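[audit] Reproducing an earlier prediction to check determinism. Same input, same settings, fresh worker. If the tokens differ from the archived copy the diff job will pick it up downstream; this log only records the rerun itself.
[audit] input (313 residues):
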Amino acid sequence: MDKTKTLLVVAGPTAVGKTAAAIELARYFQTEIISADSRQFYKEMSIGTAKPSLEELAAAKHHFIGSHSITETFTVGDFEQDALKVIERLFENHNVVIMAGGSGLYVRAVCEGFDELPSAPPEVRENLNRQLQEKGITSLQEDLAKADPVYFREVDLNNPQRLIRALEVYQSTGKPFSSYRKEKKHTRPFHIVKIGLTMPREQLYDRINQRVELMMEDGLLEEVKALLPYRHLNALQTVGYTELFDYLDGKTDLHTAVELIKQHTRQFAKRQLTWFNKDKEISWTNPLTDNVVALAEKLINLADSSGTGHTRF
């Protein structure tokens, strides 16, 4: 593949404006968008995952939005392989391809490669699921803090699927989940340019709170009610859904459930920023005050002139 081809990554926390920025970039470079948001893969989850609207999807072609069912298994390794195939195909007609999302592990998998994690005996996962049911998610969080403090600081602590996966790796191998990250990156046959979107924390938190209110107005509760028969699936063990399942179970009132969604989403955004801040190849910008297109063009030109795969400005 021609090394002048560029994968332009748009990363950052939830509600920071990645979708709008990615569409603006896609229209400027006349290209398409790979979604690296692990919750937007699922066709049954739309409102609670803040999927792009029909108008936004019409403004620029997206891939991996509603591409899978919650009943399917779709791992980060699967995403790496499938996304690289789509990127290769898109590079046949485009010099730039956009990849946008806040799922750091999925972004890293495409950019650097991802080690296949060891499989655990079924009884290990069964025991952890039983622990979740009997002792609650706090018990899993405490175990992970001891077993793998590195991953504990980065993972979505309200997502039992991620906690259980990390713990089953540790319990079956004796090694922390974080130790399986690739020490040696894969070299991709294209440039990779990374832009991170950020803004003052108070501003971001206000946007998160407003987004949750809008989700409720748009029918999030009805979406969650329709998914009740599937609530045991891993895809639904996530912010915005688990809180409303608790409300429907009578464990809390609706106001409290909505406030918890806001709180948990703010906590998730903080962990996303922690993850992406460790990536020194990311050039940060505020989408509300800065020209994202101008920054992207500058970074791509620098990558082309330097001949290196990664560029930061």
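[audit] rerun output stored. Observation attached for the diff report: DSSP finds 13 helices and seven strands in the chain.
[audit] end
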